[in-house]
Each structure stands twice: as C-alpha cells, then as structure tokens.
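Example record for the data management plan.
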Amino acid sequence: MRRGWRRIGILTVSLAVLLLAFGIEKTTEQSHLKYVTLLFDDSRVHTVEIRMEDWEDFLEQASSKEYRSCTLVVDGEIYEQAGIRVKGHNSRKLIEKYGWKRYSLKVEFDHYLPGQSYHGLDKLALDTSFQDNSYLKNYLAYDMMAHMGVPSPLTSYVWVTVNGRPWGLYLAVEEPEEAFARRNYGADYGQLYKPDYQSLEEENADVALRYVDDDPDSYENIFRQARFPVSEDEKRRLIGALKRLSEGEDLEEAVNVEEVLRYFTVQVFVVNLDSYLGRTGHNYFLYEEGGQMEILPWDYNLAYGTYALGMPDPVNDAKKYVNDPIDTPAEGEVMLRRPLFHQLMLKEAYYEEYHRQFDRFLATYFENGHFEQKVEEITELISPYVKKDPTAFCSYEDYQTGVETIRNFCLLRAKSVRGQLSGEIPSTIRGQSIDQSAFVDASSVWIPDMGEIADLKR
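Corresponding structural encoding:
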C-alpha cells in the first residue's frame, strides 16, 4: 500500500514538473510573440517613423531593391540600424514609370543587428495600397483567411512619416518568416517557401506545384525561395509530397486537406487571378512539415476581379467576376496544371467539404452582418488618415467610392456564391456559358473604381 502511495506521489511530482515546464515554455513563447498585441492591434492606427539621411537617394535607387540602414520608430519605440528596401516588382515599375515615389517597403529589424526584433517580429512589410483606392483589398482578404482558420499574416494600419514629415497611410503586414512560423506552428516549425517564377516565358511547373522528377534542380523556383536554410531531407520530403499529389492517391499524406480547402474557399471568393489559380500561378506561400503541404495567402492588391485591370484601358466586367464559378475558377488548361486544387476537386468527399466550407464562410462572415460591420469599423478608423494622406494615389472622394465598390462587390459575390451552392446559378464555366439567367445583377459595380493604372496618370 505504501509503495502504491509512493508511486502516486512520484507521478504527481512528475506531472507538476511537466506542467511547470509547459508553463515556462508557453510564457516564453507568449513573450516572444508580444508584437501580436502591440503593432498588430488593428483597433487603432499606429505610427511608424523612418529616419534616414539619404531618403531621396534611397527612392532614386528603388529599382536596386537593396537594403539601406535606417532608424525606425514604431509607436515611439526606437530601433537603430534597421534594414529597409523597396518592395514589389510590377507595382514598383509602374510607380516609377508614372513618376510617383510612394513605394511599398520591407523592413528587416535584424538585417544589420543580428538578434534585433520588434518584440519578436523579425520582418515587416509596409503596403502602399497600390491600385487599391479602398485601402481595403489586402486587409479584408487576410481577415477573411484568418476568419476561416488559415494561417495568415497579421495586419494593421500605420501612419508613416519620414524624417518628421507625413508620408502616408500604409498597411503593416507581418512577413511570413521566423516569427510568423513560430506564431502559427510553434518552436519546432517546418519549412516555408515563397514559390515564384523568374520568367513567365518558362514552364514554371514547380511554381504550379507539379511533380517533374526526383531531381531537386527541377524545383529551383521553390527551393531558392526558402525562408530558412533547406536540408536535403526537406527537399526530398517536398518532392515526395508533390509526387503523391500528382498521383492523386493518399492525398492526406501529402496535403493538409482541411487547411487547403479553407484557403481555396477564400481565394476563390475574392477572385484573385494574380495567384496560384491564375495564369501566373504565384503569390502564395508554401509550408511543409513532415512531408505534408499547406498553402498560405499573400498579396491581394489585384483581387476582387481587378487583375484584368493591368492595362491602360481596362474593361469593367463586374457581371463575370461577381458570378465567377466556384467549381472551375479558371479555364480547363489552367486547372489541369494546378494539381493542388484540381486533384482535391476530383475526390467527391473533398469537393463536398469545399462546398461545406463555403457555406460556413458565407454564414459566419457575410450573412450575419459581420462583413458590413467590419468595413464600417475600419473605414471609420482610417478615413481621417486617408483624407490627409499626402502621397495618396487617389482623391478622398475616389477612396469613398472605392470603399463602396469593394463593399458592394463582396456582398453581391456572396449572394452569387450562395446561389451556386444551392444550384440556382451554375458553378462551372461550362454551365455558365449555357445559362446565365439567374446571375446576380452586378450593374451597380464599376470595378475600375477599386483602383486602376489610369489613376497613376493623374
């Protein structure tokens, strides 16, 4: 009997030690992620001051995309020798072409001082709202993704000043790197990639997540874009996952199916054609752990049907994009070359789950008034700053119109998707080519009001 009580006592002490260790680890982790409740408290507009002696030269050399040293002051906290550079490719070129200087920016707190961070945050993007008169495109897309439980960058609005002078209202975005990985996957996180093409003239099968062969060199557009040093074992695991994906069997071993379906629910809803489901097949992050893949959101300034506006004289096509089919969100030639979506949709169970996720998304984000309240709260918060934004790409009146346009687009889109789920509206390209009689009327939406290249000419 005494031996039994002793055994119970040992177990109790051991459990206490484990709980204490867990508590310490949890406390340490929360301390490491303090930035979550500081800078990314999106209930207020934060302040970011850039102090840099050669600011004008920095802007003149924007195309180099090289980091420069600056002092960054975040909500009054000073960070010396932070690295800063211009962000973007096509957006940067167009901003430069039309004589603007309002670039998106990237900040690395530890670029020159190893170990320096903003309360655990290593890297930050400052989004300029390029081709986004509403200032809402990225914010809303990431909010929708987070609402659906997809690991997504945190965001908040910041008022940026340069050497004490007002520069403009930006969206601060948590860059998917070490802090992001720790926050979403814990201290023992896996590998993170940002697949992207070097030339659109190439095949870029790896960016589309297509299996080519077992040679790591065939996946250069993935491995060269790794956020952490890549081991040979990690390369082998990812290639193995792509091979299983191409075969279409035992997909759960290669894909976090539930996460991927939730991602595509939002991705398809916002009609982001400059993405994995578009012709370019990029603008996403890929997470791999234990041979299983997840796809993560990134870059929505050309979502909500505005990718077609990448021309000097865009054509409004609100009817098409509001009613864009959820089951075939791109032409067959594209879908067949996007196995992460195509292979899942071939499985009846996953197809049905995809529709269930859409039903949940509509019910909890749109049909209960959540979306409209969110837009109202955010626009009330940022409107005074938009009104005084000295480098804005549009007028305050254009901003107000942009807000109404994206609000109406999303509400009409939700109505159309609900009709597609019920079978009232065809949910495929082929079906819609035959019957558009039940389409949601989108004549009240003029898509260019959300932002277009022509705005840069003003």
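Summary line stored alongside the record: The chain has 16 helices and ten strands.
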